[in-house]
Every structure is written in C-alpha cells, then in structure tokens.
Amino acid sequence: xxxxxxxxxxxxxxxxxxxxxxxxxxxxxxxxxxxxxxxxxxxxxxxxxxxxxxxxxxxxxxxxxxxxxxxxxxxxxxxxxxxxxxxxxxxxxxxxxxxxxxxxxxxxxxxxxxxxxxxxxxxxxxxxxxxxxxxxxxxxxxxxxxxxxxxxxxxxxxxxxxxxxxxxxxxxxxxxxxxxxxxxxxxxxxxxxxxxx
Length: 197
What we know:
The chain has 197 residues and is an alpha/beta fold. It has a domain of 97 residues: Rossmann fold (3-Layer(aba) Sandwich). The chain contains five helices and eight strands; from the N terminus they run βββαββαααβαββ. The strands form two sheets. A five-stranded parallel beta sheet has the order 5-6-7-3-8, with helices on both faces.
C-alpha cells in the first residue's frame, strides 16, 4: 500500500468539509477525487502530500515519496520552461536538459524551451507543470485539477500518462470536475461533507 487515510476530517468556517474519510491507494491504482467546489478536494490533497500537517482529524500513512501538483501553476514567469523544470521548490532537480526537453516535447512545448514563461499562455504554463509527470520517478502522484487550461488532446495524453504510470506500479489520485475516459478505469472517491461514500 502506498498511502492510507483513516478517519480524516476537517472543519472550516464552522462546517465539516469532510469527516470520517477512509481510503487507500496501492500500486496500479488511479483514483478520481470528485466533489462540489468547496468540498475540500484541495485541502485533502494537501493533507495527503504532507503540506497541511495540523488542523485535521485522523491519520495519513504514506510509505513513499509523492509528486504533488497544485491547482495553481508553480511556474515562475521570469524563467524559461527548461529553467522552471531544472529546479523545483520541492528540491527535486532535473539538471539534464536532454531529459527536460523530451518531457517538454511530450506536453507539446517543443520550440518553447527557452521562452520566458510569462510569454506563454495559461495552458502552456500548466503544461510546463505537467511535464514533471514525465520527469519524476516518485511512485505516488497527487494532482489537483491537472486538466485546467488543457485542451482535449492534452487531456487524452495525460490520461494515457496516468495509465503508463499505474502500469509501472505507480498510483495516481487526481481531482477533476471532468469525467475520465472509460479505459482509465479509475476508482471514484466522492467527498461531499459527509465522510466515506
């Protein structure tokens, strides 16, 4: 098991975002986290990634390192896509430009490697973030709204990448309001302020 959550709960503004939430992720799992806006999807992902360590009930056991991509872009506008991927605030570094350029090609950014990210569209900036999915060897991916600002073809490529990662023993937990293709065979985890579905 790569991750286990037991009886997770959190209250914000006098109301439960979720409570009694229990689930696990094992090698090969793809889990689609769904819920209304404000249901606590981002909060849950941040708890699971270890970015929110206090203010919640329950227990998280994570037996492996994770790659967390938040719903806001981590791209720095003054840096090029290549420079953004070379170093990351998490401390994960990819100094080999050849490998970085291959990842940028995978997300459709061939030819934009050295353009300042501030000159890229929102969708292109998001694809710089998503290029990490082609670089990281971390088994557990926690992805908050990865399809934001991504076109239909890009969404299809990402879903294929999820399948590749799972087939190699990785696991993916992603939040999205968008339905996943049937071939992904994702397990659905719905949060709605009431606990485990």
